[in-house]
């Protein structure tokens, strides 16, 4: 007989193996080992069951039902930008361009650049929401609607660079499929969401994930996004402008940005932001952003010591725009703003958020510190200059 089987460890090993098999059998019977081949049902079925349990009345085909119902309202947006290609005799050297600029660049030929994005129809007569960066600078915009024979020429109705939102219009009758805007404020971290778009030109691609965070500030080039929804639903180039849907098939966000350094992290503009500015985009062609006319700086320990402050709270006015609301109200460089219309200002971001939530034309009280003394002025918030 094998020496191992006669050794003192044989009983222990046999007991351990028997215990593992017993636990596996119990787990399989209890349905815990979903997705393990040969043991129980698939992980996808488990997820569907969980969704149905949490949302009474929704069956295991919830995602498929959503896609079938609202998917036809998701459109593909192709753009064309005309330009010229140049030859630079200085090989684009920044030293020479500093002195000579572009005066020696030689135009060689016309160049056509193409772009791709997504969007979705919000009215039966052809109004479409998308990102501003999808159609920025485009000379030609084509919209492809599922089930239609050919693309439609679209015109830009309104756009806003800072919010990265745009409204397009196509003339394709009055019976187009639509997707309703939902309430992004009620979305919770962990809620299931569905993204539909055209990543890499793969039309009507569907991905599923959850809301992984809310209120994310993200900076991409010259855009400073605020209050974005973060999701792990796959979002790739070409998804921009497409809808992020809740399990009722309502839009809770517009897919906007991805994190190039991370996999599985995407961001969407909340539908509450879209609702607040949609009428202005359609009726006025743009959005009036509130503006105070100051450049701000964080209060550091050195600055606090210089100004004789007890703490680092407040927003230091680094400069004042000539003729702006702040200058008209009497604010100067070096003032430290500590309250805005009754709300505490602990840092520059606080003031930016407070001003951003103020209606253009409103009168606001601004409390600040100058020369160790607290002062108060009244300013009238104006629309941001182009």
TrEMBL record:
Reactions it catalyzes: Acts on substrates that are at least partially unfolded. The cleavage site P1 residue is normally between a pair of hydrophobic residues, such as Val-|-Val
Q: What is its main location?
A: periplasm
Query: Which Gene3D superfamilies does this entry report, sorted A to Z?
Result: 2.30.42.10, Trypsin-like serine proteases
Specify whether Protease is a keyword of the entry: yes
Which is one GO molecular function term here? serine-type endopeptidase activity
**What GO cellular-component annotations does this UniProt entry give?**
periplasmic space
Entry keyword annotation includes Phosphoprotein: no
CDD domains assigned: cpPDZ1_DegP-like (cd10839)
* EC id: 3.4.21.107
The record's listing under Pfam families reads:
PDZ_2, Trypsin_2
Q: Where in the cell is it found?
A: Periplasm
GO biological process terms on file: proteolysis
List the InterPro entries.
Answer: PDZ, PDZ_sf, Peptidase_S1_PA, Peptidase_S1_PA_chymotrypsin, Peptidase_S1C
* Residue ranges occupied by any PDZ domain in the UniProt entry: 293-347
Q: Which domain of life is it from?
A: Bacteria
Keyword field: Hydrolase, Periplasm, Protease, Serine protease, Stress response
Assigned protein family: Belongs to the peptidase S1C family.
* PANTHER family per record: PERIPLASMIC SERINE ENDOPROTEASE DEGP-LIKE-RELATED, SERINE PROTEASE FAMILY S1C HTRA-RELATED
Q: What is this protein called?
A: Probable periplasmic serine endoprotease DegP-like
Q: Which organism is it from?
A: Pelotomaculum thermopropionicum (strain DSM 13744 / JCM 10971 / SI)
């Amino acid at each position: 007989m094998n020496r191992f089987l006669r050794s003192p460890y044989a009983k222990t090993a046999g007991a351990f193996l028997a215990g593992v098999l017993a636990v596996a059998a119990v787990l399989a019977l209890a349905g815990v080992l979903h997705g393990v081949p040969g043991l129980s049902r698939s992980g996808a079925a488990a997820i569907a069951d969980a969704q149905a349990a949490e949302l009474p009345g929704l069956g295991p085909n919830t995602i498929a039902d959503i896609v079938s119902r609202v998917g036809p309202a998701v459109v593909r947006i192709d753009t064309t930008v005309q330009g010229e290609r140049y030859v630079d005799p200085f090989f684009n050297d920044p030293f020479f361009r500093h002195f000579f600029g572009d005066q020696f660049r030689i135009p060689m030929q016309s160049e056509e650049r193409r772009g791709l994005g997504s969007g979705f129809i919000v009215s039966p007569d052809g109004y479409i929401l998308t990102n501003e960066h999808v159609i920025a600078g485009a000379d030609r915009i084509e919209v492809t609607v599922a089930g239609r024979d050919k693309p439609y020429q679209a015109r830009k109705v309104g756009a806003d660079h800072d919010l990265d939102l745009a409204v397009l219009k196509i003339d394709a009758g009055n019976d187009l499929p639509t997707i309703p805007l939902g309430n992004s404020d009620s979305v919770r971290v962990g809620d299931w969401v569905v993204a539909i778009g055209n990543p890499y030109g793969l039309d009507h691609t569907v991905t599923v994930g959850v809301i992984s965070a809310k209120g994310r500030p993200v900076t991409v080039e010259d855009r400073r996004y605020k209050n974005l929804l973060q999701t792990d639903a796959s979002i790739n180039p070409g998804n921009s402008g497409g809808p992020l849907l809740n399990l009722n098939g309502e839009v809770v966000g517009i897919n906007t940005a991805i994190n190039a350094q991370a996999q599985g992290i995407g961001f969407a503009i909340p539908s509450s932001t879209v609702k607040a500015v949609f009428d202005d985009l359609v009726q006025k062609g743009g959005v009036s952003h509130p503006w105070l006319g100051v450049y701000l700086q964080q209060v550091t320990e050195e600055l606090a010591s210089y100004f004789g402050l007890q703490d680092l709270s407040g927003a230091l006015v680094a400069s004042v725009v000539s003729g702006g609301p702040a200058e008209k109200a009497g604010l100067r460089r070096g003032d430290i703003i500590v309250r805005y219309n009754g709300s505490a200002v602990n840092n520059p971001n606080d003031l930016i958020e407070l001003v951003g939530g103020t209606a253009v034309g409103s009168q606001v009280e601004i409390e600040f510190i100058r020369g160790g003394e607290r002062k108060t002025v009244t300013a009238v918030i104006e629309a941001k200059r182009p």
